């Protein structure tokens, strides 16, 4: 604190001054104020006069930064209260620091302590932006000093991540388990539901074999063999059933074939050797047999 003049006021208003006079004129008669550096060396000392005035001028020409202000008082409780108030007046004028007051009888101490990681400014009364990574910012200016969270332009951190990215300077990709690969830009949790999973927003439980898509709400096509499909896209992943073009499975089997990729032939017991493309049972009746659609009993 170089070439600095600070004023230590014993009263904050005319009302307080009036109250003080009623309680006596010598509240700070036994009063010592010390300013210490970061090594707890005394930089400057002020002794209270026999008769306290309303304002004391505190002057220091020291080059070292001030770590703490210690007020030692001797006397009744009123003296301690006023000494404490005076220390706070000084502390409020220091940007990027907070006042931590400890009162254990006499003396009282008003310490200047750095802001916590997530606070900054006058008396550390401002919170760092949630756009700052770890909500950490410079204690003097409030700008993000560890990068952005959910934003891409440190240290200002005003440009949001794209839909599929999140976290520190948007360097992480949202999980493919998130529907539309969309997630919260701060936490990475899925914010539009799951894709191929059933427990939003965590999306850690896979769909059953025959379901897929948003929160597993879609059924795999019966054209898929075993009605099994990819949990993300819904395309057939074990081949086709009654169709011949995996994984899309959009081209039907010829009349006399059926099953997995139409690789099985319909029974000659089926009339016109025609059968259901999914199950293989005779769908036009029997040929030489009497119990359709199974067609297993001779005439």
Automatic annotation (TrEMBL):
Residues 12-22 have a biased composition (Basic and acidic residues). The lineage of its organism: Eukaryota, Metazoa, Spiralia, Lophotrochozoa, Mollusca. Keywords: EGF-like domain. Coiled coil: none annotated. It comes from the Eukaryota. This is Cell death abnormality protein 1-like. It comes from Biomphalaria glabrata. The keyword Coiled coil does not apply. Residues 1-22 are annotated as: Disordered. The keyword Protein biosynthesis does not apply. One of its GO terms (molecular function) is scavenger receptor activity.
């Amino acid at each position: 604190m170089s070439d600095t003049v600070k004023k230590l006021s014993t009263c904050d208003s005319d009302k307080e001054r009036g109250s003080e006079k009623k309680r006596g004129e010598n509240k700070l008669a036994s009063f010592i104020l010390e300013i210490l550096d970061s090594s707890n060396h005394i930089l400057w000392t002020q002794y209270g006069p026999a008769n306290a005035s309303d304002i004391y001028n505190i002057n220091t020409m020291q080059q070292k930064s001030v770590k703490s202000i210690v007020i030692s008082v001797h006397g009744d409780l009123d003296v301690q209260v006023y000494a404490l108030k005076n220390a706070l007046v000084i502390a409020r004028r220091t940007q990027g620091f907070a006042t931590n007051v400890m009162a254990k009888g006499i003396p009282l101490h008003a310490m200047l302590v750095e802001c916590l990681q997530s606070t900054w400014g006058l008396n550390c009364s401002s919170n760092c932006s949630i756009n700052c990574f770890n909500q950490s910012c410079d204690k003097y200016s409030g700008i993000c000093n560890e990068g952005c969270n959910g934003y891409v332009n440190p240290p200002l951190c005003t440009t949001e991540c794209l839909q599929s990215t999140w976290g520190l300077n948007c360097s992480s990709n949202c999980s493919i388990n998130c529907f539309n690969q969309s997630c919260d830009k701060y936490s990475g949790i899925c914010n539009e539901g799951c894709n191929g999973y059933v427990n939003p927003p965590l999306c850690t439980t896979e769909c059953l074999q025959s379901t897929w898509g948003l929160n597993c709400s879609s059924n795999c096509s019966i054209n898929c063999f075993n009605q099994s499909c990819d949990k993300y896209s819904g395309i057939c992943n074990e081949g086709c059933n009654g169709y011949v073009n995996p994984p899309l499975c959009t081209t039907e089997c010829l009349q006399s074939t059926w099953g997995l990729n139409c690789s099985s032939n319909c029974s000659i017991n089926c009339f016109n050797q025609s059968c259901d493309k999914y199950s293989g049972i005779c769908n036009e009746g029997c040929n030489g047999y009497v119990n359709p659609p199974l067609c297993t009993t001779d005439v």
